[in-house]
Amino acid sequence: MKRYWWKIVAVVFLFYTIIMGFLGPVPHLPVLHETIRNLYFHVTMWFGMMILLTVGLVNSILYLRKSDLKNDILAAEATNVSVLLGTLGLITGSIWAKYTWGAWWTNDPQLNGAAITMLAYLAYLLLRSSVEEEQKRARIAAVYNVFAYVMMVVFIGIIPKFTNVDSLHPGKGGNPGFNTYDLDRNLRLVFYPAIIGWTLLATWIMTLRIRLKNIQKL
Amino acid sequence: MLIKELKALLAKEVKLEFRNKYAFNGILLYVASTVFVSYLSFQKIVDPPTWNALFWIILLFAAINTVSKSFIQESKGLLLYYYTLAGPQAIILSKIIYNALLLVFISFVCYACYSLFIGNIVQNQVLFMASLALGSIGISSVLTLVSAIAAKTNNNLSLMAVLSFPIMMPLLITLIKVSKYAVDGVSLSVTYKYLLVLSLLDLIVLTLSYLLFPYLWRD
């Protein structure tokens, strides 16, 4: 019980998210209407992805400091799982966009940022698979990871502020969506558990993969 | 100490380039022939977005070809020899400075060549040239580090493009935006803040390369 309580939390929270996400009360905002329920899936998955990417970054920096291969495996698997979450986030976002904007993909700063993030981390995984030697691979990958993370933050956080392109994305460019005014109490009650739930589920997958890696090494 | 090492290493890079000019001439020929192929298919371009996009694509691939040789070309023994002579900071800085100078030169040659064949529709020359110069510094910093990474792997040339595109994207988007303004003839008083962003980005990538290279270096 001591060691697996968080797995129970993950399952309970995710069931709660799915049930309340589809059946619970939501505010009716212009443009979004019932599709605001995607907030519980799309947005929370991206949040989980960002949390795990940050875990990956911290472990990469720790590896560069201490050269402990444990950190490297953790960084790699955190990134692997966050790519999975990112892909799910892309799919849910794309389906949402098809029915709200009428296209699977639009030229939008938010969307481009997401695409670049995915490309950067897929490149990271490719880089890992192209080096054989363990220590060397760990070091090179850690360096690339730090670079990619900083550039991703710059791309998502800083560039859109200067280029003042209007975004169609909810919460940007005056559209209703995820910000303090619109996120009322009902939404919050599902939104935060959903973030915790996805993150814990991803962590669960990550620990399984790490154990698999450790067994394969023997 | 750092300055002294830097000077020596830079002098070495320049000397090496002068001795075997084939690399440099190769890039120039690459730029000329790419521009000519574009000329054959497009003739003159008057549409600003197309003009701008084609220019940056040509320049980007020329840049990747230019910078990729900076670590990949050098043999393991030679790198080991540098290691005994100079610190990693001096080596990465000398390579970045040298590549930036080379890229500035190549981008101006590319611009001249492109104007000659495809036509020059840039209305604000100063802004365009400033974006070329600032872009060269940033692209050189990213690509030099990526080439150091790629040199350590088995299939280095294809990795070079895959690894560098996503992390160059903030820089590229800003560059394309600034040069688009330059083509449209927007005055400097409106666009100076984009030049500031560009300089800031240059500073970020330069610092990252400078800080991260020592970890790549130890082998």
Report on this model:
The complex is a heterodimer of chains A (218) and B (219). Chain A is globular, with a radius of gyration of 19 Å. Chain A has helices at 5-23, 42-66, 69-100, 109-129, 134-163, 185-217. Chain A has one domain (39-217). With 218 residues, chain A is mostly helical. Chain A starts with a helix and ends with a helix. The mean pLDDT of chain A is 85. Chain A is built from 6 helices and no strands. By secondary structure, chain B is mainly α. Chain B has one domain (2-217). Chain B is 87% helix and 0% strand. In chain B, helix 3 runs antiparallel to helix 5 and helix 5 crosses helix 8. Chain B is globular, with a radius of gyration of 18 Å. The mean pLDDT of chain B is 88. Classes of the chains: A mainly alpha (218), B mainly alpha (219). At the A-B interface, helix 4 and helix 5 of A face helix 7 and helix 8 of B.
Radius of gyration of chain A: 19 Å
Number of helices of chain A: 6
- Major β-sheet of chain A, in short? none
Q: What is the terminal separation of chain A in angstroms?
A: 28 Å
| Content-based structural category of chain A | mainly alpha
* Overall geometry of chain B: globular
Strand content of chain A: under 5%
Number of domains of chain B: 1
Can you summarize this structure?
The complex is a heterodimer of chains A (218) and B (219). Chain A is mostly helical. Helix content of chain A is 73%, strand content 0%.
List the helices and strands and how they pair.
The complex is a heterodimer of chains A (218) and B (219).
Chain A: H1 5-23, H2 42-66, H3 69-100, H4 109-129, H5 134-163, H6 185-217
Helix pairs in contact in A: 1-6, 2-3, 2-5, 2-6, 3-4, 3-5, 3-6, 4-5
Chain B: H1 2-19, H2 22-42, H3 48-72, H4 76-85, H5 88-118, H6 125-150, H7 156-184, H8 188-217
